[in-house]
Design a protein that fits this description.
single chain, mainly alpha, two-stranded antiparallel ribbon, 13 helices, 2% strand, binds benzoyl coenzyme A
């Protein structure tokens, strides 16, 4: 129903060769395949769905792209809670459009992952059974309207920092999906900053609300870039394959350096007493990250993990009739076309 995904080249090693001659031919074919893949990576050429690729490369991509898709879709939940409570019709329309964009990002990304031979149903099963991860950031609650500002400004700001290099990812369908996603994310970041700016220039109570949101979202956003490089199990191989282009710590540093002047313009204070400009490094130094909190959230024990998963499973079950109706419609159309052709 969905894509060309299932129509993949046979990626397995050839059957056990029957003779020495056949074994030599098979080994030469495998070596040529490996060399073609390595050369494409070395020359920065895109790998496409029909190209041969090592199984570990395929698995890494399915893991990262499906987690990314899940993050976009689960990421609709904290903002969805505020659609009915947005302070004006204009803010409501903007927030709705942003949330719809996130749903669209999920769809492009599921489609990109399907080109690697994993069905959307398999990916959703992994999410709903709690096996697949999604970004830690969406396991925090959105308590006030200012959180809509903080999410757009900081969460989407962090997302752009992480995702712009993914436009150069070695896997073609993921890289191409990221180009459109990044354009939309930059609108999201601006709408968040615009909310923060209005609140920061508003009454004392509004400014306090903006500061409170920054206080609660800052550290979870800093953690969103993933474990520090020394603890990142996948970075080395993913960088070698051109899937990731910049490490977790380097992206985190770029994000902090870009965001502090924006906080200053708002007149808000980042909740890190150790944050200071390091003239020698040309970067901000920041305080210790509480990695025990990060891993607790990643492993299912954050403030909203259970609530988020329950909401996703319920949404999937409640949408069952739509999927059934779409399939029934497609079947009827196929039957009609067959009758017309007969
Ligand atoms: N949360 O070896 P590492 C959005 C896991 S959506 C949870 O560094 P890698 C938005 C990691 O998966 C933004 N888990 O891994 C949407 C791995 O576990 P597994 C989402 C995390 O893959 C709506 C383990 O920790 N963006 O912006 O090299 C509204 C070791 O990590 C996290 C993406 O998904 C985390 N934060 O690097 C608003 C971008 N961090 O898989 C906004 C694409 C790490 O071995 N993904 N883990 O069980 C990536 O760039 C990379 O996958 C990561 C992690 C940087 C996230």
């Amino acid at each position: 129903m969905y894509t060309q995904a299932i129509d993949l080249p046979d990626n397995d090693r050839p059957d056990e060769p029957k003779s020495l001659e056949a074994a030599k031919t098979a080994a030469a074919a495998n070596a040529a395949r490996d060399r073609a893949f390595e050369a494409a990576i070395a020359n920065d050429r895109k790998i496409e769905p029909q190209d041969w690729m090592p199984e570990a490369y395929r698995r890494t991509l399915v893991r990262q792209i499906s987690q990314h898709a899940h993050s976009e879709v689960v990421g609709m939940l904290p903002e969805g809670n505020w659609v009915t409570r947005a302070p004006s019709l204009k803010r409501k329309a903007i927030l709705l459009a942003k949330i719809q964009d996130e749903g669209g990002h999920g769809l492009y990304l599921y489609s990109a992952a399907e080109t690697l031979g994993t069905s959307r149903a398999q990916m959703l099963d992994a999410l709903h059974s709690g096996k697949a991860k999604y970004s830690s950031i969406f396991n925090y609650p959105a308590l006030t309207w200012a959180d809509m500002g903080a999410i757009g400004w900081l969460v989407d700001g962090a997302a752009i920092m992480n995702q712009v290099p993914l436009c150069r990812c070695s896997y073609g369908p993921y890289a191409r999906a990221m180009i459109r996603i990044c354009k939309e994310e930059s609108f999201h970041q601006r709408q968040g900053y615009d909310i923060m700016l209005s609140l920061a220039r508003g009454t004392q109570a509004q400014k306090a609300m903006a500061q409170d949101a920054l206080n609660r979202w800052w550290w979870p956003v800093v953690m969103m870039f993933g474990p520090s490089d020394k603890d990142s199990v996948h970075s080395g191989q993913s960088m070698a394959w051109g899937i990731k282009r910049i490490t977790n710590d380097d992206l985190r540093q770029k994000f902090i350096d870009a965001t502090i002047p924006q906080a200053e313009l708002l007149g808000l204070t980042v909740p890190d007493p150790d944050l200071k400009w390091n003239e020698e490094r040309g970067h901000y130094d920041h305080g210790e990250i509480d990695w025990s909190e990060f891993w607790a959230v990643v492993n299912g024990d954050g403030p909203c993990n259970r609530e988020r998963l329950k909401a996703r499973v319920a949404a999937h079950e409640n949408g069952g009739w739509v999927r059934e109706a779409a399939l029934a419609h497609a079947r009827k159309q196929a039957e009609r076309a067959q009758r017309a052709a007969a």
